[in-house]
Amino acid sequence: MKPRILISRRWPDVVEARLRQRYDVTLNAGDAPMGVEQLRAAMSAYDALCPTVSDRVTAEVLAAPDARVKMIANYGAGYEHIDLAAARAAGVVVTNTPDVLTDATAELAMLLMLMTSRRAAEGERELRAGQWTGWRPTHLLGRSMAGKTLGLVGYGRIARATARRARAALGMEIAYYSRRRADDEDGATYHETLESLAAAADVLSLHTPGGPETHHLVDAALLARMKPTAILINTARGSVVAEADLAQALADGTIAGAGLDVYQGEPKVDPVLLAAPNTVLLPHLGSATLETRTAMGMRAADNLDRFFDGMPPLDRVA
Question: Which residues cross the membrane (predicted)?
C-alpha cells in the first residue's frame, strides 16, 4: 500500500506528478490555507504532511488524537510555522528545502533595492492613476546605488549572492553584520555590531532566520540609527521587523523608504505600510520562479523518498 500524503497547497505540476507515482496523494484543490481543525484531522488520516509557510503546524495540531503522521516535509526553507519542540515530542520528523532558493531570493532583493531607490512603485502608481503630467527635471528623483554601501544583516548564501550582484551590477560597497565573523569575507567589511552597520549602510538588507533571537531585530531604536537617505530591504522573515516602528519611521522621514516581501501577519499587512508612498510591497515572491518552486518541490519529494525508504532525510530540522 502506498503511503498517504497530504499536500496543503498546490505545487508545480511536475512535482505533483512525481509524487503521484509513489504515493497516495491528496491535493488541496482550493489552494486555500488550511485551518487548525483541518490539519488536526490530517494528522490522523495521513502518513506524511507537506505544509507551507501559510499552514501553522502548532502543538495543538501535533497533539491530534490517534496521530498517524510521522513525517512533515515542509515546502520552504523557513519553518517558524512548525512547532519543532512539539514535533520532536511527538516523534515526527520535520524537513525543509534549503539551498535551492538562493538565486531567486537574491534577485528579488536586488529588485526591491532598485525599485525603492528609484521610486519605481511610486511612479507606476502615479501613472496608472492617470496623475502623471509629463516629464520634468525634478519629478520623482531617486538615488543611484553606484558607490553606495549595501549593509547585509546576516552573511549566509542569500546575502552573499545579493552582495555579488550588487557589487558587479551596481558598483556597491559591501558591509555585513553577523553573530560570527566569516572566515571568507569575499571583500566585505565586517561590523561588530548591528547598530554600527545600520549607521553606515545606504541600503540595509535583511538575511536572517526567524525565531526569538531575531524577533523585531529592526525596531525604532535601530531605524533611528540609519541615515535619513537609507532604505530597508526585507526578504528574510516578517517577524524580524517591528512593522509599527517601520511605518512610523517612514512617515517621519527617519529613513527614505522600504522594500518588503515578507510580513509578520501574512497575508495581512499593516494598513499604515499599505498607505505609505515610500514603500515597495510585494506578496512574498522571493522564491517565485518556476525553476525555484519546482526545485523546492523536488527537494521535499527527495526528503519524503528517503524517509519512506528508511534512510535519513537530507534536510532534517527536527
Answer: none
Active site residues: 237, 266, 284
Domain ranges of the chain: 4-100+290-308, 102-281
Residue 215 has pLDDT above 90, yes or no: yes
pLDDT in tens, 151-198: 999 999 999 999 999 999 999 999 999 999 999 999 999 999 999 999
The three three-digit cell numbers of residue 97, written as one number? 528545502
| 92: amino acid identity, one letter | V
CA 34 – CA 22 distance, rounded (Å): 24
- Residue 24 pairs with which residues in a beta bridge? 4
DSSP output for 26-69:
EE-TT-----HHHHHHHHHH-SEEE--TTS-B-HHHHT-TT---
In sequence order, what are the residues at sequence separation of 6 or more whose Cβ sits closer than 8 angstroms to the Cβ of residue 96? 74, 76, 77, 78, 79, 315, 317
33-37, 219-223, 286-290: lowest mean pLDDT where? Answer: 33-37
User: Binning pLDDT at 50, 70 and 90, where does residue 227 land?
Assistant: very high
* DSSP labels, 206-252: E----SGGGTT-B-HHHHHHS-TT-EEEE-S-GGGB-HHHHHHHHHH
- Assessment of whether the complete model's pTM goes beyond 0.70: yes
The SS3 assignment for 152 reads strand
Query: pLDDT tens, 68-86?
Result: 999 999 999 999 999 999 9
pLDDT of 211 > 90? The answer is no
CATH assignment, 4-100+290-308: 3.40.50.720
Residue range 102-281 forms a domain whose CATH class is alpha beta
Q: Please name which of 252, 296, 251 lies closest in space to residue 275, comparing C-alpha atoms.
A: 251
Contact criterion met (CB below 8 Å) for 233 and 116: yes
Please indicate whether the domains covering 4-100+290-308 and 102-281 agree at the CATH topology level: yes
